[in-house]
Amino acid sequence: MRSTLEELLNKVNIVDIVSQHVKLRKSGKDFLGLCPFHNEKTPSFTVSIEKQIYYCFGCHEGGNVINFLMKLENMTFQETLENLAHEYGVEIKKGGTKRSNSFDAMLKLADFYHHNLKDTKLAREYCARRGITSDIIDEFKIGYSDRSRLKIQTFMKNSGIPRDVLLNTGILRVKDSDVYDIFMGRLVIPIFDVNKKIIGFGGRTIEKEGFPKYINSPESPIFSKGTTLFGIDKTRKYITEKNEVFIVEGYFDFIALYTAGLKNIVSTLGTSVTETQLTRLRNYTDNITLMLDGDEAGIKSALKLIGRLSDMDINGNMVVLPDSHDPDSFIKKEGIEGLNRVINAKKPIMDYYFDYCMAKWGVETLENKNHFIKSVLPFIEDIRSGVKKRLYIKRLSELTGVEEHHFREEPRERTTEGPSGHFISSSMIERRVIGALMGKPGMLGILKEREVINYIKDAEIKEILLNMCEFFDKKGSMEVNNFINVLEKDSLRVLVTNAVFDVAGYEDNELEMVLLDYFKHVEKKSTKDELKKITERLFEAEKRGDDKEIVELLNEKKKVLAFFKTNQ
Predict the structure, then answer these.
(1) Which CATH number does the domain housing residue 157 bear?
(2) How confident is the model at residue 564 (pLDDT cuts 50, 70, 90)?
């Protein structure tokens, strides 16, 4: 396993992987971006292409590419290893984890549904009426679940997936000793994660009496509606290229726009946009445009995001489609040219709401003016940017004739939940020592020769140094992205990556000076402690009048001082 892991890490460039999830910019020798693991406005997430590691100076997460993907995708070490190995053509023994079994089950179900659609005239006719061509069906692997329980039972028997794994998906269920499918009578659209693995399905009824119209897979260890973005597997590169993403509300809206040529889009899964989804999108762009129905419900859904978007320093815009169209119906009627005209008229969410409230209430009467102010003011207060808030207050004042100071609230103390970081007990100098040893591992020999580790009291520092000595003895080298895999504790891994970034700009002679100075410092401190103990014992011996022990202790003190002088 270890040699396979090292082979994989030698093939993978961490910047290539991280840049698929985080918008990075070059900063000296390293790359910098907004941390995907906590909310921040100023980039503190650093990736070293030289060391093949990452570290966030805000929340103290750090490690190599394996650790990054484990944390980001909530996967086990084995699952992450298998995914990367498959992507880079490295053979690795599969672990057979529950998650990988679930992925296998989802893939088999998708194939089952896909073949069902092609064999079902009713479903094919429905697709044809909606303009869903065979090419679209194949590209999105759209399927159909008919009402034949015999088909489901045959599938379960022949799928090669254990029955309990299929039932654990929550899609196939047992009632009265009979198996049924929650998607029966529906078109089934697979939902992929960023690694192009199927994690769930969306189902749309094609029957007139079918209710509800849309359902999703149940929540599971691999699927959550609030964190998933439909289509992100296909569109993330376009989002990065365009530096903008459009968010729509349905599978078929996404499919219609994507096939018409608007590629930098994603869809929610029948839920309001969540903070987790915004955080994921912010890794690709800080320009997010909502493409919603123009009714009051759609607008209020967008308004709820104003505070979050402001907190995350995201430019939030809105595109409102006319005449009660959704994106699917609008693109069919007006084409991509009509859509582009609407997109070009997009506005910041707050600007759109101003216009909406002005059209709804106006400011001609005192009562209407009061309604207008009460409608927009709470959302202005949610804006964190002082400049933007003042501009909107100024606009509100100009529209209503009410002086600006009446809209300015007293400063409120805001409390934010800090990121969950690791507490590192080591001092700055001890971190630098570890970083320096990563850069000059040959000096581990001096560290062992002088028995420096024996003098170190910090348990974490000592554990790391012992691991470093063992690793260097075996490998003859000290690549940090390989070394941190031998550390079992997250706190140690974070400490090491932090240490490497601490000394990133040091020259070789500076690294050597850090180490030699530290070795002297530890030995000096240890000598002082030892001399103090000898002095205390001398005092006790003198009180007892034990001349023999006094002579022995004086000789011991002389030897300690001589050893210390020799090693300076």
Answers:
(1) 3.90.980.10
(2) low
Sorted by sequence, the CB contacts under 8 Å of residue 294 that are 6+ apart come out as 320, 321, 322, 324
Q: Length of the chain, please?
A: 568
In what side-by-side order are the strands of the sheet with 25-27? 25-27, 30-33, 45-48, 53-56, 62-63
Q: Are residues 250 and 194 in the same domain?
A: no
List all residues 6 or more positions away from 446 whose beta carbon is below 8 Å from its beta carbon: 515, 519
Burial 372-383 (b: 16+ CB within 10 A, else e): bbebbbebbbbb
Q: Residue 452 class from Cβ within 10 Å (0-12 exposed, 13-18 middle, 19+ buried)?
A: buried
Angle at 259 between CA 258 and CA 263, to 5 degrees: 30
pLDDT of residue 94: 62
Last residue of a domain, one of 337, 360, 383: 360
Q: Does 103 lie in the same domain as 51?
A: no
Q: Single out the residue of 214, 246, 254 nearest to residue 230, CA to CA.
A: 254
423, HSE (Cβ side, Cα atoms, 13 Å): 1
Of 315, 333, 360, the residue at which a domain comes to its end is 360
78-101: pLDDT as tens digits? 878 888 888 888 877 665 566 678
30: CATH: 3.90.580.10
Specify which of 113-122, 295-304, 539-548 reaches the highest per-range mean pLDDT.
Answer: 113-122
DSSP category for residue 161: S
Give residue 413's pLDDT band: very low, low, confident or very high (50, 70, 90).
very low
pLDDT tens string 277-287: 888 898 889 89
CA distance linking residue 208 with residue 341, whole number of Å: 34
Structure token digits, residue 356: 């909406």
Residue 248's identity, in one-letter code, is: V
In a domain, 396, yes or no: no
H or E element at residue 133: none
The dihedral region occupied by 42, where left means phi > 0, alpha psi between -120 and 50, and beta the remainder, is: beta
Angle between helices 547-566 and 508-544 (to 10 degrees): 170
- Three-state DSSP at 245 gives strand
pLDDT at position 419, please?
Answer: 34
pTM, two decimals, is 0.69
- The span from the first CA to the last CA of the chain, in angstroms, equals 44
φ/ψ bin of 503: left (φ > 0), alpha (ψ from -120 to 50), beta (otherwise)? alpha
* Domain enclosing residue 113, as ranges: 98-216
Strand bridging mode 265-267 / 245-248: parallel
pLDDT at residue 417 is higher than 50:
no
Q: Using CB atoms within 10 A of its CB, is residue 213 exposed (0-12), middle (13-18) or buried (19+)?
A: exposed
- 3-state SS class at 204: strand
Q: Which two three-digit tokens encode residue 536?
A: 């205390």
Same domain as 126, residue 61: no
Question: Please, what is the Cα angle at 65 between 195 and 278, to 5 degrees?
Answer: 55
Sign of the alpha-carbon torsion through 153, 154, 159, 160: positive
Residues 6+ apart with CB under 8 A from 398: none
Query: What's at 484, amino acid-wise?
Result: I
Q: How far is CA 568 from CA 199, 258, 449, 518, 539, in A?
A: 62, 70, 14, 12, 28
* Bridge partner residues of 203 (DSSP): 188, 215
